Amino acid sequence: MLLVTTDTYAGKEIKEALGIVKGEIVQSKHLGKDFMAGMKTIVGGEIKGYTEMIGEARRIATERMIAQAEQLGADAVVGVRYGSSAVMQGAAEIIAYGTAVKFK
Description:
Blueprint: E1 2-3, E2 14-28, H1 31-43, H2 48-71, E3 76-88, E4 91-103
Parallel strand pairs: 1-3
Antiparallel strand pairs: 2-4, 3-4
């Protein structure tokens, strides 16, 4: 599945927009890692446990978006965007979305 953040794909002409596709996940870290992250805020620096959590959540959200596009018979997803929000302490929602399209 081709994924691009632009509204077009170079060298391809869009025949049909199939609709918006999205993938979502709410992910959290276990209490032990959350405690260690809290300790890290005292001294500063990257909180690797959260970086890993967000990366994994983004991967899963992308896979879910691709699965929706494949169900529609899409050739690509254009205008791909990601959003995130804190749902509660130690948990984040990640959403991936875009427009599923068929090429000529």
